[in-house]
Specification:
Enzyme class: oxidoreductase
Strand content: 5-15%
Keywords: FAD, Flavoprotein, Oxidoreductase, Transit peptide
Shape: globular
Number of helices: 11
Distance between the termini: 63 Å
CATH architecture of the largest domain: Up-down Bundle
Domain Acyl-CoA dehydrogenase/oxidase N-terminal: 23-135
Number of domains: 3
Strand order of the largest sheet: 4-5-9-8
Helix content: 40-55%
GO molecular function, one term: fatty-acyl-CoA binding
CATH superfamily of the largest domain: Butyryl-CoA Dehydrogenase, subunit A, domain 3
Number of strands: 11
CATH class of the largest domain: Mainly Alpha
Domain Acyl-CoA oxidase/dehydrogenase middle: 139-229
């Protein structure tokens, strides 16, 4: 081989994984990166410090223009892109901030997917084009104050009253809730668990914002209160009965997390690498010391193994062979790995690691929420364990 044609080692892509991406996927990555650079990165540390995302509606419209809202869905104004395309976008969004990727995931993989997969044609026509454009924002109400990992025990109830449904209950930790135009709410009924499309201007619906949180601060997190919310018969998602509906939506969101969490880890690694070559101690850059190089190598192995896992799962999803247990595998390992990388990167930055001048502490605290939502470590470990042994450890 001609030595001039040999590839060079890229510290930001040590395994050459970018070579596995198509020209279109590289363009998606670069477009999402540019949106983050122009509309989020300069402001997100301040939003995080203040505990708000003041431009959420403007951001939704920009994301809609780019085509990333419900981008893996087909028809109704959605881009109809591949699972890998969507994953590449999630990685870039979360490398900016987990709250931004959560906005997109809840909109596309939870609220829009629920309507797209389980809704009526009327639901789809009414909501999906506007949501894909970012002109309407959705949220997804499943988790309750006393029931997170066990949604079958939910207390929110929908009763029939003539041809109407009347919903009563509370949902908790709902991204986008306070700013949403529509909520997909799951409730027990006499016929089992059903999903409902709830306009947020319905009488009896309110969504007070949750404050005093120390994670996902640049994100709108809400409680949903349903006080005798009356809905017409057409509000029910006709194709969904039981927990299959909401669990299928969670699986869509978990897939995005596999990529997104790794984006946060990549941002931490890149920050630590840059810092290590600039920061001088004992007369030379700290990147020249063995302990720092060992940390950088370990972080690089973690991040890029995570990229390979995400890409593998994305290709299986595009092929129609991805199993829920495999998504649990990816969510468990990539989020856990991202936290390890963030914590190691913080040590490389020393005291600077706790400052919002750098993204590391913001990613670290955000990842604590990512670790919990869409299934805790314990739930995903038990899902994998049950698949391996054929024995359920969830219930006696």
């Amino acid at each position: 081989m001609n030595s001039s044609a040999r590839p060079t080692f890229d510290p930001r892509d040590p395994l050459g994984i970018d070579d596995e991406l198509s020209t279109e996927q590289v363009a998606i990555r670069d477009s999402v990166r540019a949106l983050c650079r122009d509309h989020v990165t300069p402001y997100v540390a301040d939003w995080f410090e203040r505990g708000e995302m003041p431009t959420v509606r403007e951001l939704a419209r920009e994301l809609g223009k780019l085509g990333v809202l419900g981008m893996h869905l087909h028809g109704y104004g959605c881009a109809g892109m591949s699972a890998v395309d969507y994953g590449v976008a999630c990685e870039e969004l979360e490398s900016c901030d987990s709250g931004l990727r959560s906005l997109v995931s809840v909109q596309g993989s939870l609220a829009m997917f629920a309507i797209w997969r389980w809704g009526s044609e009327e639901h789809k026509q009414q909501w999906l084009p506007r949501m894909a454009a970012g002109e309407a924002i959705g949220c997804f109400g499943l988790t309750e104050p006393d029931h997170g990992s066990d949604p079958a025990a939910m207390r929110t109830f929908a009763r029939r009253d003539g041809s109407d449904w009347v919903l009563t209950g509370r949902k908790m930790w709902i991204t986008n809730g306070t700013v949403a135009d529509v909520a997909v709410v799951w409730a027990r009924t006499d016929e089992g668990v059903r999903g409902f499309v709830v306009p947020t201007d319905a009488r009896g619906f309110s969504a007070p914002e949750i404050t005093r949180k120390m994670s996902l601060r640049a994100s709108v997190t809400s409680e949903l209160v349903l006080d005798e919310v009356r809905l017409p018969a057409a509000a029910v998602l006709p194709e969904s009965e039981g927990l299959r509906g909401p669990l299928s939506c969670l699986n869509e969101a978990r897939y995005g997390i596999v990529w997104g969490a790794n984006g946060a880890a990549r941002s931490c690694l890149e920050t630590a690498l840059e810092y290590s070559t600039d920061r001088q101690q004992f007369g030379r850059p700290i990147g020249g010391f063995q302990l720092t190089q060992s940390k950088l190598a370990d972080m690089a192995v973690r991040v890029h193994n995570g990229r390979l896992l995400a890409l593998h799962l994305g290709r299986r999803k595009d092929a129609g062979t991805l199993l829920p247990q495999q998504v649990s595998f990816g969510k468990l390992d990539n989020v856990r790995g991202a936290l390890e990388v963030a914590r190691t990167a913080r040590t490389v930055l020393g005291a600077g690691g706790i400052s919002l001048e750098y993204p590391v502490i913001r990613h670290m605290t955000n990842l604590e929420s990512v670790r919990t939502y869409e299934g805790t470590d314990e739930m995903h470990a038990l899902t994998i364990g049950q698949a391996m042994t054929g024995l359920s450890a969830f219930r006696d």
